[in-house]
Amino acid sequence: MGEVRKIEVPISSELAAEIDAAIAAGGYRDFSDLVSEMLDSWHSCRHDDSERLRRLWKEGLASGEPIEGGFDLEDIKRRGMERLSCVSFTKPAISPGSNSTDRS
After folding, report:
1. What whole-number distance in Å separates Cα of residue 4 and Cα of residue 39?
2. Where are the domains of the chain?
3. What is the pLDDT of residues 59-72, one digit of tens each?
């Protein structure tokens, strides 16, 4: 794992209560266990996104030359904004007991 570094982070009392409830429900041994799992999940998502983008980039390059006349920047922006309007930007909830790794 390498060198361990302690970091202090202020959190709201509401979030602290949710964390305490998750630990009390038996989903995590302690605060450190919960945060470790959350960070592992975050790191995994970032890695998965990077890999997905690399794959899509390679697919695009392999698809050949662009088709003439098919590039309308304003249409691309409009369609992108439409797609974004359907996306929820809330953080995914991590429920107690949904440990992806065994920390026992």
Report:
1. 14
2. 31-62
3. 988 988 877 766 78
